[in-house]
Write a structure and sequence with these properties.
With 189 residues, the chain is α+β, with helices and mostly antiparallel strands. The strands form two sheets. Strands 1-2-3-4 form a four-stranded antiparallel sheet. A three-stranded antiparallel sheet has the order 5-6-7, with no helix packed on it. Strand 5 and strand 6 form a beta hairpin. The radius of gyration is 21 Å and the shape is elongated.
Length: 189
Amino acid sequence: MKEYIAVILVAAAVFGICFLVDKGFTKLFRNQSQHHSGKAVRLSKRYGSIGLILLVFGIGVLFAGLPDNWLFIVSSILISAVGIGLVIYYMTFGVFYDEDSFVLTTFGKKSATYYYKSIVGQQLYVTTGGGVVIEVYLHDGRTFQLQSTMKGVYDFMDKAFFAWLRQTGKRQEDCEFYDPQNSCWFPPV
């Protein structure tokens, strides 16, 4: 019975710490106007949820008394590491946008603000599960990938295309590549 109580306490502590870290992270690092516009492309919450479940499971295995074997110790550390990775990926990736620009936030790189005219092209990839990955190319050589399962991806691409037209002085009639039904907004690379 003591083991179950310990697992429940650890799970509650992990969820509480993650909630506080998320709120603190948002206040400290997401302070530009695009972050507060309410418009964003974000990963599915499944990444964060599955990451937390794996983290709690990995820690739970250590505290449940199962690690009498080195295999349990190594596997619980690996499961916890994957869980931490998913949570970090969920918390750090995002494209936040407004009428004139967008902020690209990724893990390990400083957030950068781009005007829509910085977009030079896109490439499409179809996954084995039938999903679509849109890789967007920027003028400075940086790229970022948006999955069709992400929250807000199609709204962002529509907004980006029309703002790109406005900022570059192009007309929609001159963009034969434009076909949002087939996930094409920008010239192919």
